[in-house]
Design brief:
The complex is a heterodimer of chains A (591) and B (408). Chain A has 591 residues and is mainly α. Chain A has 28 helices and 1 strand. Chain A starts with a strand and ends with a helix. Chain B is an alpha+beta fold and 408 residues long. In chain B, 36% of the residues lie in helices and 12% in strands. The chains are: A mainly alpha (591), B alpha+beta (408). The interface between A and B is large, with 144 and 113 residues. β1 of chain A pairs antiparallel with β9 of chain B, so a sheet runs across the interface.
């Protein structure tokens, strides 16, 4: 687990959480009987029974066997064993081992041992199916092999897989938002700079004329220049202030469309902090160990720190019923029924009508052979939720085991009446455990997230009010800019405005032509076409910033990095196409 | 700004098309040998046209009679009554119900059409376009688009009104004699107003005087937000259209802004543009949070970005541990295995990440250019609590081992 020294509270306090976990773990078991042969939660905050520990140890040993495997068959068999072991723990995949296999695959490829590389890739895919990392590694191996088409195919497949994974997709989306905001703001800055370049001369001349009434000659020129450039002295934010200052001064020279663009950009600048702050709060939650653990648990991925991260969750929300139910589900999936029942009972104490918990406790008694108690809990579950198919089905099974066949048939009939297809599926399923369990805790993930958010917020109250005020200052400033610009225009209008020149737009020399091609937006700005100017700047700016998206946004924590080649390719090709199109346009319209 | 040139360098249709394409508002004057014609444009569309040698009222009454909207007798009576009534003749005709306003406007449009069609036959003369924010024109006049005008120009002779309307005196006949034989027309006097004339002032004072009746009724500023006539779409998306070829040959007169002023503005524009790009490359957070009071948010964002980055480094380091039973000695080793990218060795603010290794843990700390650690930004991690890496994680008692079974 990661211990981050920054202001991410949950991570910084990991040590404290673990300590808390140790203290809270035992009381969390409640007054119920503590099962025998259960490890102390000293390490993780989660108790592990001997069979579970043995299974974990078996995974370690099988992994070492896989590392030493010398052929595809034996390696394949070991992978099967690994997956069988992990299924015993109620899980489906082993992401850490999958990443290890990917590294082994690339190492083998570099040693020109391509058969080994390929079965290592297969192993990685089987150990954690559908991950983009496996596709990226396959792309790398194909590249080393010289199969560039396959490499490209795997690379694209990797990016496609990215969209199906919750955390990666979320981070990618958030990065995209930051990138888009940055592109927009940078384009806004460049838009203002273009306005300055095309209309600034007229502004300078008008101000010189106004000043010339009192300060004739070169003194007037210098004074006007000083009046226009003074924001540069505000180190280190001078250039920003200069842009903002000029954007206000140039309002009177701008066409309607340019004014619309200016106002939009000011508003984006003013409200972006509010947007990013909301995003950061959510991201802090998504990257916290407890949420990562919940995500992986819902996908049945057994990663190395899963137990520790769940321990953190318990220590963070020791009183949460939803967390207890989630941990109950986890223990149940590990086949630690005694621990699970203890937690479910605590849930039922708080929430007597919790159907999922009632069902799971009923299941516990059913597997113990205590059908009387099982029937009692299933009846409570059906009373709490008469439309619950699983409760009716389990009740039917319990009656059947108690030789109460009439009751069993009646309950089964009711279950069929509710959802015949599900009942048939349960009856026909080869792995049918005769009663159905319910992942009520996992279903409450959103509730747990909300509690975590509250918990984080509660710890942040110190400087947050000042921070909120600061964010508000930006928004108010943006609105203020609009008012100042309009006010200044109304005040200045009577002095008149000089018409800006059309240098770049009308120039016929080769230099002018290349300026039109290479300086997007300038000719449109001279013509007063605000939307066109913005678009002409937005596209190349976005393409130029594409390879920087990793630095602007959040690094996606995938275990195997695909590199930045695809973004560079898009950026270079896009820019070539863009400027090529501009050149073509210019050539087809030349004299 | 004014743009001027001569008709022997380029043709009038091209000038009209340029004005239309750029949706300019202003007055185009064309001076021939014997006449001057002024065409008023509103957002690139023609809203009025006048000739020096023929007042608008003269031309209009001829069209009204030719089109049968007014008889000769009615016209004579109206002309007789008008001086005593005062005001403009066209208003008088409407007020006295000689003609409806709709018909009068239609006739005015025909007359404008005809005048410009005649003008299109000129191939000698000077032109000058005065850009402005407003022009005078008859209220409710249906503007004539240049495209419409040019399309119909070929059919002009077919229209009786065109024949009836008096043509302005062309500078030269349609088949002109040799160019050198023609004396140069008198230059148009420069506008009376100074170059820095207010944009909001009516454009009419800046151009040669128009017939009094036309300028008597000022029209409010009409600079529509939505273009009145669509600009032909460029073939390249987001690339602004270049000026028409013929127009680039024109002599562009920069009446208002001397080069030195423009140069200062361009240098002033270049400074923040370059610094913006530098800021983006060195510290992208500055672009998102540029204000001084947003320092806290910049740091907060950087911290969150580091959290994601540290998670990535952690996964990579633990994968390395899984294979080598130890953490790497340098972060670069993780990059060599493609577990990290090159930019993962620096944080989002460009700080180098200093990596230090302990027995079963590691520490990553961003440092500034001088090697000073950034306070509160470090991360430490260990194998503790990881069932795959931590040898102490599984603590099976000897009793828990599988029993030894003796076969014999």
């Amino acid at each position: 687990m990661c211990k981050n020294g920054g202001n991410r509270l949950p991570v910084r306090l990991v040590a404290a959480w673990l300590a808390l976990a140790c203290c809270s773990a035992l009381p969390a078991l409640g007054q119920g009987e503590r099962p025998a042969a259960v490890s102390s939660p000293r390490q993780t905050g989660i108790e592990l029974s001997t069979p579970v520990q043995q299974a974990l140890q078996q995974i370690q040993e099988q992994w070492l066997q896989w590392i030493g495997a010398s052929n595809r068959e034996s390696a394949g068999k070991i992978v099967e064993n690994l997956l069988a072991t992990v299924r015993q723990l109620g899980m489906r995949s082993l992401p850490d081992l999958s990443l290890g296999a990917l590294v082994q695959a690339e190492k083998a490829a570099h040693q020109r041992d391509f058969p080994r590389a390929h079965w290592a890739l297969e192993a990685a895919e089987r150990l954690d199916p559908g991950r983009p990392e496996a596709a990226f590694a396959a792309s790398r191996v194909a590249g080393i092999e010289g199969s560039y088409l396959a490499a490209g195919f795997h690379m694209l497949a990797g990016y496609q897989r990215l969209l199906w994974l919750p955390l990666e997709r979320y981070l990618w989306g958030q990065s995209l938002l930051l990138w888009a905001l940055s592109v927009l703001l940078l384009t806004g800055g460049l838009f203002t700079a273009v306005q300055m370049a095309t209309k600034g001369g007229a502004l300078y001349r008008d101000i010189t004329n106004m000043i010339a009434r009192r300060l004739p000659g070169s003194a007037g020129l210098v004074a006007a220049a000083a009046l226009l450039l003074w924001p540069l002295a505000l180190v280190p934010y001078g250039p920003l202030w200069l842009l903002l200052y000029w954007s206000v001064l140039l309002w009177g020279y701008a066409s309607t469309s340019e004014r619309v663009v200016l106002v939009s950009l000011w508003l984006v600048l003013g409200f972006a902090p509010l947007l990013v702050a909301a995003q950061r709060r959510q991201l802090s939650l998504e990257l916290s160990p407890p949420v990562l653990a919940m995500e992986n648990l819902s996908e049945r991925r057994l990663y190395g720190s899963l137990f520790t991260d769940l321990g953190v969750l318990r220590s963070l929300l020791p009183e949460s019923t939803a967390v207890r139910q989630l941990l109950g589900d986890f223990h149940r999936s590990l086949n630690q029924w005694d621990l699970a029942r203890s937690l479910y009972r605590q849930v039922i104490e708080k929430e007597p009508a919790n159907t999922a918990a009632l069902l799971d406790v009923g299941d516990y008694f059913f597997f113990k052979g205590d059908y009387g108690n099982a029937i009692q809990y299933f009846q409570k579950a059906t009373a709490a939720d008469p439309a619950n198919v699983a409760a009716q089905f389990n009740l039917s099974q319990s009656y059947s085991e108690s030789y109460l066949f009439d009751e069993s048939k009646r309950a089964l009939g009711q279950a069929r009446a509710l959802d015949a297809s599900r009942v048939d599926a349960w009856l026909k399923h080869p792995d049918q455990q005769r009663v159905v369990a319910s992942d009520g805790g996992l279903a409450r993930a959103s509730e747990i997230r909300a509690q975590l958010t509250q918990s984080f917020r509660g710890r942040e109250t110190g400087g947050s009010r000042v921070e909120v005020l600061r964010r508000g200052v930006s928004a108010v400033s943006a609105l203020g800019l609009v008012l100042v610009a309009v006010g200044l225009h109304l005040g200045r209008r009577r002095f008149g405005y000089t018409e800006p020149p059309l240098d770049v737009r009308l120039g016929a020399s080769p230099f002018d032509r290349w300026r039109r091609i290479l300086l997007p937006g300038v000719a449109a700005s001279e013509a007063g076409e605000g939307g066109r100017t913005l678009l002409a700047l937005l596209l190349p700016t976005g393409l130029l910033m594409l390879p920087l998206s990793g630095d602007i946004g959040y690094r996606i924590p995938w275990g195997y990095d695909p590199g930045n080649a695809i973004l560079w390719t898009f950026a270079v090709l896009g820019l070539l196409l863009y400027f090529g199109a501009r050149l073509r346009w210019e050539l087809t319209h030349q004299v | 700004m004014a743009v001027e040139g001569t008709l022997d360098l380029f043709q009038l249709p091209e000038i009209l098309q340029l004005i239309s394409q750029q949706q300019k508002t202003g007055i185009l004057t064309v001076q021939g040998q014997n006449d001057i014609v002024a065409i008023s444009f509103l957002a690139g569309r023609i809203v009025a046209a006048d000739a020096l040698n023929q007042t608008m009222e003269e031309g209009l009454t001829r069209v009204l009679v030719a089109e049968g909207m007014l008889t000769q007798q009615e016209l004579a009576r109206a002309m007789a009554e008008h001086p005593s009534a005062g005001g403009r003749l066209i208003d008088f005709l409407v007020e006295r119900r000689y003609v409806t306003r709709q018909r009068l406007l239609a006739a005015l449009r025909l007359q404008t059409y005809s005048l410009i069609e005649q003008l299109l036959r000129w191939d000698q003369g000077d032109f000058k376009f005065y850009s402005g924010e407003e022009v005078s024109y008859e209220e409710a006049f249906v503007p004539i688009t240049v495209e419409e005008l040019l399309l119909n120009a070929g059919n002009a002779s077919a229209r009786p009104a065109a024949e009836a309307a008096p043509a302005p005196h062309p500078a030269r006949p349609v088949a002109p004699p040799p160019l050198r034989a023609v004396p140069r027309p008198e230059p148009i006097p420069k506008p009376a107003v100074p170059p820095a004339a207010p944009r909001t002032a009516p454009a009419s004072p800046a151009v040669p005087p128009l017939p009094a009746a036309r300028v008597a009724e000022p029209v409010p500023i009409r600079r529509p937000a939505v273009p009145l006539s669509p600009v032909p779409p460029p073939s390249v998306p987001a690339a602004e259209p270049a000026a028409p070829a013929a127009f680039r040959k024109m002599k562009v007169e920069q009446l208002a802004v001397p080069l030195s002023f423009r140069a200062v503005a361009r240098i002033a524009a270049l400074v923040p543009a370059i610094l913006l790009v530098v800021a983006l490359l060195t510290e992208p957070g500055l672009v998102l949070f540029p204000f001084p009071w947003e320092e806290g948010q910049r740091q907060g964002l950087a911290q969150e970005q580091r959290s994601a980055q540290y998670l990535k480094i952690d996964r990579a380091a633990k994968t390395f541990f899984l294979l080598e039973a130890r953490f790497p000695e340098r972060l670069a080793q993780l990059q060599q295995l493609n577990l990290l990218a090159g930019n993962d060795l620096r944080d989002s603010q460009g700080h180098e990440l200093r990596y230090s290794l302990r027995e079963e843990s590691y520490k990553v700390q961003p440092v500034d250019a001088k090697g000073t650690p950034i306070p509160g930004a470090e991360t430490t991690d260990a194998v503790t609590g990881n069932f795959l890496l931590d040898s102490d994680f599984i603590s099976l008692s000897p009793d828990a081992q599988a029993p030894l079974v003796l076969l014999d």
